[in-house]
């Protein structure tokens, strides 16, 4: 009886139907408990299912049931080896969420992306989105009245979505009172954004108290009008009336006093800015007091804004014509728009004109002629001020001119779309009137909900913050603040950080387990390259369709968000079909059932495909405005491995795939991408299995494995992981100024190390097709010299940091590898991996000073930024 059950189970086991075989083995063991063989079978099948503790238990039971001869034979050796491997992968499997005795930097703080080498990030002070509320009707209906909702805004920008969410909250409370509270986490990578937003928060806080009482006299009404005008003009316009600038300077003085702790005033209780953020904001506020006005005159900005506005409108009209969208830009400009584009002035309301600018009022009343516009332009150039909050002085001095060509009427139209719904102010005529009602509504909403909202600001990369929040790595964050959210909104951040990787790895997992919880993201930079969501996923995640993707990332079919709810993509022109906000949500919490997973072969193939796509991106045109970035580095493989383990994928699948990469023994049907964007059909195309070498990337991958080993939720048994990794600093790299200043903001820079002796006589590395040399597949070079170089003379590093102020590169590498490169007189140089061209002077590796050590799989990292010894120099 037991033998028949085992035979039936073995047949299923060979077909990899492990779940079907399992109950048969249990029955066999119960039928004949003195027979070791059912225990062997149970140990094996439980191991394959990822049940390692149970596999060890039954393996030990098998050993204890065997006689000495069997125990010392093949069966005994096999089960002992399985027990040993199970114990390896079990390492820390239940304690991933903590960092144990780790001190200093955790390896999860290693750079996620290839570095940029530009000195400054781009600063766009005004957004383009139609304001949308993250709070929705279904949330209001399903969320308990006494619950706390939590919203995360990644790339908060001008905060229009936050403002509209606030007004929606107040409107929902007006219809039905609750005791519900909301926690907002506002994030941006630029301190300029938070400096600007804080000015608006302070103004709105002041205005919120004044909106609670009706003005008693003209003077009070005038002060109220000035605050709203200050909000309006600072938010939208590059030039502002003098009284608006006076109000700005008052708020700056007040805000700086709050941040520096001078006097009695502190930030409003509903706002939190971390000390490190305050320290970055204060210099920006100070620069808005005088530095901007020393740098730019009103007339200069007036001229610049006119030219940029004209160029922008021409480009949009050309794009619309190319798309064949007849009639989209045929709408005639209003008189107000004509006045603005000729003078860069939005007309103030009559009360403020009568109080402060009667001369301007007389000019506005003149007959509509060219002479009238010239006079208004001259008046504005002489009497108005530059909107200091739109400019970053440090960037300007470095040659980066801030954008001031935004069309303020886009905001008016966007608000009109949003407030066309029942939530918010009614539509009105004139841009100022629309803005007045918008900001008045926000201030009123703040007055009604001040005690029930809290705004936490976090400076830095959005995806890093999402991941760090979920696993508790955000420093000095209050333990009562949420670590899961009802809605995460990620502006256009995914365009620059790896597409849906950010959504699936960091955004969706941080959502609450609620039916209404969702994650919003957009592809704004290059939507024309992606006709469907599957195309978008294919390019960035190397997954061929939604069905396959959901076996790794269990999400519901996304829908396009609109100001009045979901939109039909069929109603949107193809070029823009992916440029809206897609709303994602998860089907359920992990882990998935074993039957819902990809097969082991599919999982390994995907990991190899993702690795190849990451290390060998397709060449791309760096001047293209819609260039598809390839920003990820090899840390993504370890982050994905952790995610897969949490999702239910067996640890030994993942450990074996990583070991194959470490040992350079990968045989696979995966291939490096052969075009950009990578399409679903490319991934479905049958390809024969082939042994691929990862030799040029092994030094980095092995060094990363040494650093990641302590925090992986499973163990890896490998002789290829170095025991000593050091952090090195290279100083100084002379850089191509065009790449540093003009195109250095693209995350496309890698360190290329090479052995000149392996190049061959008369050959220079910068005259070669480097990608063809690196390609390990059928498309790679077969020249014996290139093959020799690929196998033993090249190393590519993408996990490094660049300090643009000092032209220093910091990277982490196996000390033994570095010493070998020094002995063999290797060279190093910064290259772009979009053009596969060098951007710096080559330098000899032997001049690299010995760095700070990271030993023995430590989780502790050095925090000093400089190494000891002689720096590289020219």
Automatic annotation (TrEMBL):
DUF4470 domain ranges (all copies): 126-212
Matches recorded under Pfam families: DUF4470
Entry protein name: DUF4470 domain-containing protein
């Amino acid at each position: 009886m037991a033998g028949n059950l085992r035979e039936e189970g073995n047949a299923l086991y060979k077909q990899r139907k492990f779940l079907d075989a399992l109950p048969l083995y249990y029955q066999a063991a119960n039928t004949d408990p003195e027979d070791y063989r059912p225990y062997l079978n149970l140990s094996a099948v439980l191991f394959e299912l990822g049940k390692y503790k149970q596999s060890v238990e039954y393996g030990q039971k098998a050993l204890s049931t065997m006689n000495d001869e069997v125990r010392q034979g093949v069966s005994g050796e096999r089960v002992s080896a399985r027990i040993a491997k199970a114990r390896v992968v079990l390492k820390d499997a239940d304690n991933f969420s903590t960092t144990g005795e780790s001190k200093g930097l955790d390896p999860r703080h290693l750079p996620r992306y290839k570095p940029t080498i530009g000195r400054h990030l781009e600063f766009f002070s005004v957004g383009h989105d139609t304001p949308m509320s993250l709070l929705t009707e279904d949330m209001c209906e399903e969320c308990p009245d006494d619950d706390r909702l939590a919203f995360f805004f990644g790339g908060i920008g001008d905060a229009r979505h936050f403002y509209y969410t606030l007004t929606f909250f107040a409107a929902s409370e007006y219809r039905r009172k609750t005791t519900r509270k909301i926690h907002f986490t506002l994030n941006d990578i630029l301190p300029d954004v938070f400096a600007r937003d804080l000015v608006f928060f302070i103004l709105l806080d002041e205005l919120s108290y004044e909106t609670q009482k009706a003005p008693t006299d003209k003077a009070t009404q005038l002060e109220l009008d000035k605050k709203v005008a200050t909000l309006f003009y600072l938010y939208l316009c590059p030039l502002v009336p003098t009284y608006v600038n006076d109000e700005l300077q008052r708020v700056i003085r007040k805000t700086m006093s709050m941040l520096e702790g001078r006097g009695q005033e502190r930030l409003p209780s509903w706002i939190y800015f971390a000390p490190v953020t305050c320290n970055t904001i204060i210099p920006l506020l100070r620069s808005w007091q005088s530095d901007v006005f020393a740098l730019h005159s009103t007339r200069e900005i007036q001229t610049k804004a006119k030219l940029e506005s004209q160029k922008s409108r021409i480009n949009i009209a050309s794009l619309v014509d190319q798309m064949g969208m007849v009639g989209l830009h045929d709408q005639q400009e209003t008189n107000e728009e004509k006045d603005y584009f000729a003078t860069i002035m939005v007309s103030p309301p009559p009360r403020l004109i009568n109080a402060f600018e009667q001369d301007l009022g007389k000019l506005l009343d003149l007959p509509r002629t060219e002479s009238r516009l010239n006079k208004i332009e001259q008046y504005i150039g002489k009497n108005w001020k530059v909107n200091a909050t739109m400019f970053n002085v440090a960037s300007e001095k470095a040659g980066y001119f801030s954008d001031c060509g935004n069309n303020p009427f886009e905001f008016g139209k966007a608000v009109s779309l949003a407030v066309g719904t029942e939530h918010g102010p009614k539509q009105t005529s004139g841009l100022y009137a629309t803005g007045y009602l918008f900001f008045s509504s926000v201030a009123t909403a703040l007055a009604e909900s001040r005690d029930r909202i809290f705004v936490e600001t976090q400076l830095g990369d959005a995806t890093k913050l999402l991941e760090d929040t979920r696993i508790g790595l955000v420093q000095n964050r209050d333990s009562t603040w949420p670590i899961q959210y009802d809605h995460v909104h990620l502006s256009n951040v995914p365009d620059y950080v790896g597409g849906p990787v950010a959504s699936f790895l960091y955004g969706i997992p941080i959502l609450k387990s609620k039916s209404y919880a969702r994650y919003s993201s957009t592809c704004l930079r290059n939507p024309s390259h992606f006709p469907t969501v599957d195309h978008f996923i294919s390019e960035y995640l190397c997954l061929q369709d939604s069905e396959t993707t959901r076996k790794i990332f269990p999400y519901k079919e996304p829908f396009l968000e609109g100001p009045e709810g979901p939109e039909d993509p069929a109603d949107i022109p193809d070029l823009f079909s992916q440029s809206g906000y897609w709303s994602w949500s998860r089907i359920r919490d992990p882990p998935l059932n074993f039957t819902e997973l990809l097969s082991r072969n599919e999982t390994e193939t995907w990991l190899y495909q993702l690795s190849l796509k990451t290390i060998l991106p397709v060449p791309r045109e760096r001047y293209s405005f819609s260039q598809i970035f390839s920003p990820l580095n090899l840390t993504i493989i370890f982050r994905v491995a952790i995610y897969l383990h949490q999702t239910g994928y067996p640890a030994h699948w993942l450990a074996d795939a990583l070991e194959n990469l470490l040992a350079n023994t990968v045989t696979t049907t995966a291939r490096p991408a052969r075009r950009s964007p990578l399409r679903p059909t490319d991934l479905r195309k049958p390809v024969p299995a082939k042994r691929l070498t990862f030799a040029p990337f092994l030094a980095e991958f092995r060094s990363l494995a040494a650093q990641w080993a302590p925090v992986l939720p499973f163990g890896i048994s490998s002789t290829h992981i170095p025991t000593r990794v050091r952090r090195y600093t290279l100083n100084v790299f002379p850089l191509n100024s065009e790449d540093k200043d003009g195109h250095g903001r693209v995350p496309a820079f890698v360190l290329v190390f090479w052995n000149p002796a392996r190049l061959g006589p008369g050959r220079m590395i910068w005259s070669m097709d480097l990608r063809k040399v690196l390609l390990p597949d059928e498309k790679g070079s077969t020249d014996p010299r290139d093959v020799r170089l690929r196998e033993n003379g090249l190393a590519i590093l993408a996990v490094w940091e660049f300090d643009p102020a000092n032209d220093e590169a910091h990277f982490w590498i196996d000390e033994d590898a570095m010493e070998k490169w020094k002995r063999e007189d290797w060279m190093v140089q910064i290259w772009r991996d979009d053009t596969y061209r060098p951007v710096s002077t080559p330098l000899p590796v032997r001049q690299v000073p010995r760095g700070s050590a990271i030993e023995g799989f430590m989780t502790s990292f050095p925090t000093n930024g400089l190494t000891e010894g002689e720096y590289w120099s020219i």
